[in-house]
Amino acid sequence: INKGQQAYYAENTKFGSNVATLGLGLKTLTTNYSYTVNATGANATALANPTNADALKGYAGGVGLVDAGDAKTTQSILCETTGVGVPTVPTFTATEVSCGGANMTIVQK
Residue-wise over 9-27: b if at least 16 C-beta within 10 A, else e? Predict the structure, then answer.
């Protein structure tokens, strides 16, 4: 979803507001997870909420516009819960995208 958001932004100068808009062919509900996407002008988040929060980790992705000297670029992050449970959305500043909440750890940046 993060890569899809980056590609969508490169083509449309805005982030996609839902999974279907990104054209990834991803179902929003599977046996183990439900997927949601939210977008603003400066960032986008994606959550993979476990259908059984007592047995599965949750995942959160974020893509944001960050300052890169004289221009802005997109930066992404993928986070997972440190144990089982529901994920917390990433946080965004002018220079960095980070995992949100103490229950989240970085999988990929």
Answer: beeeeebbeebebbebeee
Which residue has 């000297």 as its token pair?
69
Q: What is the CA radius of gyration of the chain?
A: 14
Would you mind telling me the total number of residues written for the chain in this entry? 109
Cβ contact 24:1 at 8 Å: yes
Q: How far, CA to CA in Å, does 100 sit from each of 12, 21, 59? A: 27, 25, 11
pTM passes above 0.85 = yes
Averaged over successive runs of 10 residues, the pLDDT of the chain (109 residues) comes to 96 95 94 96 96 94 92 95 94 95 92
From CA 89, how far away is CA 24, in angstroms rounded?
21
